[in-house]
Design brief:
The chain has 75 residues and is mostly beta strands. It is 0% helix and 68% strand. The chain has no helices and six strands. It is globular and about 35 Å long.
Length: 75
């Protein structure tokens, strides 16, 4: 699923600071991990809503995709 991602340049990489999903803006509370694939970079993050997201970006064109979403657990 393609999404809109607001980024900030950090150590030479565009890092997600907020994402817009179904018209709703979610700020990034914490970047938990990132890793590199052959043609992509992945970022695992926690949104201000408490949910976990994994985003994939094609570095050559800065096209972001949502590859995983997990709602925050109640309790």
């Amino acid at each position: 699923m393609q999404i809109e991602v607001e980024t900030e340049r950090e150590d030479g990489l565009d890092m997600p600071r907020a994402l817009r999903l179904n018209g709703r803006r979610v700020a990034v509370a914490e970047i938990l991990d990132q890793w590199f694939g052959e043609d992509y970079r992945y970022c695992k993050l926690r949104g201000e809503d408490g949910a976990l997201y994994i985003l994939r970006v094609a570095e050559d064109r800065l096209a972001w995709e949502l590859t995983m979403f997990a709602r925050a657990q109640d309790g």
